[in-house]
Amino acid sequence: MTLLTRLAKPIRNYRANQIIDTFRFFIQPNESMLSVGDGDGYVSMRIKEKTGIEIQGLDILPYQEYRVKGVPLTLYDGKNIPFPDKSFDITTGIFLLHHCEDDTILKEMIRVSRKKLIIVEDVFNNSLEQLGLRVFDCVENRTFSSEMPIPHNFRNLKQWKKIFKLFDLKIIRSTQFRALPLPVRNQSFCLIKK
Ligand SMILES: C[S@@+](CC[C@H](N)C(=O)[O-])C[C@H]1O[C@@H](n2cnc3c(N)ncnc32)[C@H](O)[C@@H]1O
Predict the structure, then answer these.
(1) Ligand 1 midpoint to CA 79 (Å)
(2) Is the pTM of this model over 0.90?
(3) Fewer Cβ close by (within 10 Å): the C or N end of the chain?
(4) Which residue numbers in the chain have pLDDT < 70?
């Protein structure tokens, strides 16, 4: 563990706890989870510690410097999830989808999930907040990686609800929260396939 990651541990724990608290109720013992856009794996590691479930990470980049131990990571092309249909009880995309060019990955996440999806995203209420998100997203993600795609595909709450309806996903719980004490809006969606 580098000095930076050691110093950052309380912040990473705080962020992971805030995120997980929004969907903890949705995870049952013995369920399997695919975490798409797993990044450093820290949130997955904390889910595993809190629930005991097995988690498979999936990403387009390895983030070797930061990557946690104990959550396996598969790398792929960012388009075709390399697992068969319905191979996980839950698929998650935590701050993933605004990094994707279109909805191909969401469709793939639906395909490999048996029933449940968890989506966590940044949302905005007006164009000023949208601009703020763009700036924040660049600063946050470029500190972490120079290779991560940042197309800024942010949606507001209404747009997310429309997309979920289009893909036949029923919202079980939608929670607005702050993963970090910053002036941004985060939204967590617990979804089931209809
Ligand atoms: C903001 S990070 C979030 C990481 C982690 N989920 C978290 O919240 O701590 C976004 C992640 O999505 C990954 N990503 C971007 N496009 C992707 C794609 N098409 N498929 C899978 N992962 C992707 C990035 O490499 C990065 O790890």
Answers:
(1) 13
(2) yes
(3) C
(4) 1-7
Kindly state if the Cβ of 153 falls inside 6 Å of ligand 1. Answer: no
What is the DSSP secondary structure assignment for residue 67, as one 8-state letter? P
CB 192 within 8 A of CB 116: yes
Other C-beta atoms within 10 Å of 141: how many?
Answer: 17
The answer to whether the CB of 95 is under 6 A from ligand 1 is yes
Is the beta carbon of 53 within 6 A of some atom in ligand 1? no
Q: Is the CB of 94 under 6 A from ligand 1?
A: yes
pLDDT tens digits along 61-89: 998 888 999 999 999 999 999 999 999 99
Between CA 88 and CA 86, with CA 121 as vertex, the angle to 5 degrees is 15
Beta pairing, strands 185-193 & 169-177: antiparallel
Closest CA to 133 of 124, 142, 121: 124
Express each pLDDT in 128-143 by its tens digit: 999 999 988 888 888 7
- Taken in order of first residue, the domains within the chain and their CATH numbers are 3-193 (3.40.50.150)
